[in-house]
Specification:
The structure is a homodimer of 97-residue chains. The first copy, chain A, has 97 residues and is of the alpha+beta class. The first copy, chain A, has a domain of 67 residues: Ubiquitin-like (UB roll). Chain A contains two helices and four strands, in the order E-E-H-E-H-E. The first copy, chain A, has a four-stranded mixed sheet, covered by helices on one side. The longest helix of chain A has 12 residues. The radius of gyration of chain A is 14 Å and the shape is globular.
């Protein structure tokens, strides 16, 4: 149920993007993977290495996978050389956190 | 409730495909087992031996079994000669992980 409102693209989605140590999280609106990485890179002051899902570290590499992401998905923008790690409160996969 | 949006096929599903040691996980969109294996093989740089369910190592060998996979299923693409092993955090069967 996406709508054209106030000049926003119908494809715009809202994301929450954190850095590798989860010390900062930014709300970012984007209609493409390229736009999301550019905006998050500027906002978090990170040289983009890769963009991954915060929940399990899945790489978001393609626009087609980006299209399937839910509104309000939490992502992590990794700097060059940084690696995803699970949230410290989640000691096992599938833990609800 | 699949919809034809933005030119995506109605049969497309979103998967998360990891390599044998779970060091890399990629978001992959595919509408068939053949497409999924080809895309994951390229993205993970793996010569495809077999594609299995990450949770219990079940072989995904047929298109009809592929059809039954849920959106966002986690799979593992094994290189020739590699074997599935349970996640190290899951020490016992039935553990939620």
């Amino acid at each position: 149920t996406q709508q054209l409102l106030f000049g926003l693209s119908v494809r715009n989605k809202s994301f929450r993007v954190t850095n590798a140590d989860r010390s900062v999280k930014k709300g970012i609106i984007a209609d493409s993977l390229e736009t999301l990485v550019n905006k998050a890179s500027f906002s978090l002051n990170v040289t983009p290495g890769s963009l991954v899902l915060d929940e399990d570290g899945t790489d978001v590499e393609t626009e087609e996978f980006f299209e399937t992401l839910q509104n309000n998905s939490v992502l992590m923008l990794l700097d060059m050389g940084e690696k995803w790690s699970p949230h410290p409160n989640c000691l096992s996969r599938g833990h609800v956190c």
